[in-house]
């Protein structure tokens, strides 16, 4: 058993909100992050479009907070044509220059260029099964069952392998840590703390970490 403070914070890193639900501290106070945690994070994402968007946003997040990316997500979607791979694949240098002047998004030339490169790589993957099939082929047989924040991994054997495979197809900003964050976000692994109300929310995993 873990102890709780008067504020509802447990020593396992969970915080019990006014609604009686336990969430990790990062999702407990900010309304936007709480909504994301309760409705999106860890819910399975399938299909080329959704996975391409998540890869791009995880790449933009590198070195920044996820809250920053969430607050800019609508602007990102507008700037990158709702992350339509065909549309973004057609971007040229002038589009990258134009996006570098758009203060609503993260103005990092390497990340913007990678979004274009990754769109082209996504289109090319259609000839060999597609992005969705490639990414989901790295779902492990078991998922972590962390009870405390200290037990949360940041990479895995599968995220290292996925990173290597995507790089071999020309993707950029897809390092093992970024790919593990992607795997968490789209339900490939479940790293919700065992005491969280969202544990096993994907429907793909049992609370103990075994596959359904």
UniProtKB/TrEMBL annotation:
SUPFAM superfamilies: DNA-glycosylase. Zn(2+) binds at residue 192. It comes from the Bacteria. The keyword Transferase does not apply. GO terms for biological process: base-excision repair. Pfam families: Adenine_glyco (PF03352). GO terms for molecular function: DNA-3-methyladenine glycosylase activity; metal ion binding. Keywords: Metal-binding, Zinc. This is DNA-3-methyladenine glycosylase I. It comes from Georgenia yuyongxinii. The lineage of its organism: Bacteria, Bacillati, Actinomycetota, Actinomycetes, Micrococcales.
